[in-house]
């Protein structure tokens, strides 16, 4: 297994606007994710967590610094190439799931693969595999409104993981799920990282961050700890009991 960084942020800053009203959403953040690593990002509201995730996923561009996905600086890519990296290497799980209501679970999961040129029969097979991996294989032919919130969330994770993607970006993926279902979703994410992917997980909850290998903290756009040495005590306690 390669130990090359799957994601590397090199002294990345993001400033919105300019002059006295400029907002420094991120300040000189450096962060490296290696294969199999799940890193949690915590910090108060407005500290820059979503901005970090958007930059990592090529949905936003840094004002300074560089974002590298599997060794490629995203700034060197044209629009088409960036779109291809986003489809092939990256998976997103956001709070609003963005499942397409008119498509079944399997069709939702297969869609990004078909957009990437995979034949529909092969894309469906990949989708079934991804759905089975997250424990909802038997719901493949149901529509989103025929599933519970937790089941829909698993479908969204399957869609983020389908095919050869190696980097999963999750912004509060447990959203409004009850705590049991939320834990299940994190267990799936953890298992996927153990199987070779890398994950960046934004969360407000220390017990969710406990699933991560490392926890990094943002404050006013700056990383205040990237060592994992000094997370809050509750994170350490919870990590000990990780299932
Ligand atoms: N498009 C934008 N224009 C101006 N300011 C922005 C923009 N996007 C984000 N910001 C500002 O950048 C800062 C970081 O925002 P971000 O959404 O990354 O924080 P967050 O930690 O994810 O917050 P939350 O936990 O509330 O979701 C905030 O001050 C926010 O108001």
UniProtKB/TrEMBL annotation:
<protein>
    <submittedName>
        <fullName>Putative ABC transport system ATP-binding protein</fullName>
    </submittedName>
</protein>
<keyword id="KW-0067">ATP-binding</keyword>
<dbReference type="InterPro" id="IPR027417">
    <property type="entry name" value="P-loop_NTPase"/>
</dbReference>
<dbReference type="Pfam" id="PF00005">
    <property type="entry name" value="ABC_tran"/>
</dbReference>
<dbReference type="InterPro" id="IPR015854">
    <property type="entry name" value="ABC_transpr_LolD-like"/>
</dbReference>
<dbReference type="InterPro" id="IPR003593">
    <property type="entry name" value="AAA+_ATPase"/>
</dbReference>
<dbReference type="InterPro" id="IPR003439">
    <property type="entry name" value="ABC_transporter-like_ATP-bd"/>
</dbReference>
<dbReference type="InterPro" id="IPR017871">
    <property type="entry name" value="ABC_transporter-like_CS"/>
</dbReference>
<dbReference type="InterPro" id="IPR017911">
    <property type="entry name" value="MacB-like_ATP-bd"/>
</dbReference>
<dbReference type="GO" id="GO:0005886">
    <property type="term" value="C:plasma membrane"/>
</dbReference>
<dbReference type="GO" id="GO:0005524">
    <property type="term" value="F:ATP binding"/>
</dbReference>
<dbReference type="GO" id="GO:0016887">
    <property type="term" value="F:ATP hydrolysis activity"/>
</dbReference>
<keyword id="KW-0813">Transport</keyword>
<keyword id="KW-0547">Nucleotide-binding</keyword>
<dbReference type="GO" id="GO:0022857">
    <property type="term" value="F:transmembrane transporter activity"/>
</dbReference>
<dbReference type="GO" id="GO:0098796">
    <property type="term" value="C:membrane protein complex"/>
</dbReference>
<feature type="domain" description="ABC transporter">
    <location>
        <begin position="7"/>
        <end position="237"/>
    </location>
</feature>
